[in-house]
Amino acid sequence: MAASSTNPYSEAGVDTAAGDLAVELMKTSVRATHGPEVLGGVGGFAGLFDASALLGYTKPLLATSTDGVGTKVAIAQAIDKHDTIGQDLVGMVVDDIVVVGAKPLFMTDYIACGKVVPERIADIVRGIADACTATGTALVGGETAEHPGLLGVDDYDVAGAATGIVEADAVLGADRVQDGDVVLALASSGLHSNGYSLVRHIITGAGIGYGDDAADFGTTWGETLLEPTRLYTQPLLRLIDALAEGSIHSLSHVTGGGIAANLARVLPVGSWAEVDRSTWSPSPVFRVLSDIAGTPLTDTEGTWNLGIGFLAVIDQSQKDAAIAALATEGIDAWQVATVGMGQRPAGEFEEGAKGVDGGAVRLVGAYADGAK
Q: Can you tell me the mean pLDDT for 283-296?
């Protein structure tokens, strides 16, 4: 009997040729993230990174983080725009590493999809690679998996993991925080990549399409909501080097859980901070979405970053220098709180978060009316 000329895997819905083409389309952008420490090129079973540089450390600690983009990808899929999701992924993964003061070394990504569309996959990976370049991270490997029957033809999800390095005696954290430390807020670029289930609920409930014009922003709703996550890694590493040694005590990436919960994670037990809402005005996208939902901004404080993408707890003597240094990076920064120790004011505070027995934080006052 003659052998069948059909490919049973293709009949099952998996297009290996499309996967190979996707790899070819992404090769150039991936290679652009490689320095001499990356060995083996693109396409190996494992990425290789020369760790000789670690020999220059007295006691090197490896920092690692993993994350995804969440339901923001549904908006990218709805308007068929996939070139910014990669930056969101790097922002969620690599910017968690700098929280401990670590320099990122390398990253890998994983894309699961219902059907490999080579150009779409290449757009996603190009965004990842460009953001890796911006954060000084080598993209050393990844995987694209086709899951027909599990995901729809136009559906996909992305995730990634990264590794960084920091000298043991330079690790930032709550143990460094002191009474009277200043808490600086670093402006976000918008929603970043958290709280999109609420965003989508609001938009859908209002009968708005992602292709509809968003009069407040001069573009479509989909394009507005896909504003990519700001990358903080290199500006913060440069800030650490620029300020007096030991001036930065702890950093917090404001992601899921909002401002209070994420700040509480990097403050020591027994400390407290009152974040003054009057020091900034949440970005227009937050105000417009809240208006559409008919809810006050305060109801979203545990979900959205409300205009603050990072928080830095620093020595009070370095406040002005830090704000000026961040301004040269194009990042608006301002004081939102002062850390207190001992007896705290009466009232409810959020204490610790995500399993961390940290400090106590609450937001007080009313948001400023004008733009920060």
A: 95
